Automatic annotation (TrEMBL):
Transmembrane segments: 21-41, 61-81, 93-116, 122-138
Amino-acid biosynthesis as UniProt keyword: no
Protein's name in the database: HXXEE domain-containing protein
Alphabetically ordered keywords of this record: Membrane, Transmembrane, Transmembrane helix
Source organism of the structure: Virgibacillus litoralis
Protein origin, superkingdom: Bacteria
Keyword Transmembrane helix: yes
Length: 148
């Protein structure tokens, strides 16, 4: 649990302190989409199909630490640092680095028994993470378009 609370503090401090390249409405939209995606995906993959989970099987209030403490901050950082003006190679490299980071963080959570896998495999996450990241970037693009 200490690992998780330190993660919340570090990610939120980073999200607050980094220079912002995104507007407040983009921050708000990123927070909302990250919470919705987390709840939607975990409702099915965790609760319905029991492929993985946080802490103990079933609904657990401690999981809300991820919902409100980790995902919004991490996604703000990710969207804020996205290389908008660079080419496809830079963007692909950014997604690859983030995927490796997310996989490493998932392994760390597995090792401290905060997260567990049942039928889920780490390579499933390796496939899913890039798509979730692209979805975040498309959400930012939509928000920018709606603002204009």
């Amino acid at each position: 649990m200490i690992f998780l609370l330190v993660s919340v503090a570090v990610f939120n401090l980073a999200a607050i302190l980094i220079p912002k390249n995104i507007s407040w409405i983009e921050i708000y939209g990123t927070i909302l989409i990250s919470i919705v995606l987390h709840l939607l995906i975990d409702t099915f993959l965790d609760l319905k199909y029991d492929l993985y989970g946080y802490f103990d099987k079933g609904v657990d209030f401690k999981t809300l630490i991820f919902t409100f403490g980790i995902y919004p901050a991490v996604n703000i950082i990710i969207v804020n640092l996205y290389p908008l003006v660079h080419g496809i190679l830079s963007k692909s490299l950014y997604i690859l680095i983030l995927t490796i980071f997310a996989l490493s963080y998932e392994v760390a959570l597995l090792n401290v028994n905060i997260f567990y896998h049942n039928e889920w495999r780490l390579w499933y996450s390796a496939i899913v993470y890039p798509f979730l990241l692209i979805l975040l970037f498309l959400n930012r693009k939509l928000l920018k378009r709606l603002l204009n």
